[in-house]
Amino acid sequence: MSLIMLKDITLPQEFVTPAPQSAEQLQHDQSLFAAAKEAIKKHNALLIAHYYTAPLIQKLAEETGGFIGDSLEMARVGKDSPLQTIVVAGVRFMGETAKILSPEKTILMPDMASECSLDLCCQAADVKRVKAEHPNATVVAYANTSAEVKSLSDWIVTSSLAVELADYLKGRGEEILWLPDRHLGSYIANNAHTDVYCWPGRCVVHDSFDAAAIKKMKEENPGAKLLVHPESPAEVVALADCVGSTSQLLAFTKNDSASTYIVATERGIFYKMQQANPQKTFIEAGIAARQGVSLDGAKCPWMSLNSMAKIIECLESTGEQRAAHEVQVPAAVREGALKPLDRMLAFAAALKSGSVPSDL
Ligand code: 13P
Ligand code: SF4
Question: Is the pLDDT confidence value at 5 over 70?
Answer without folding.
Answer: no
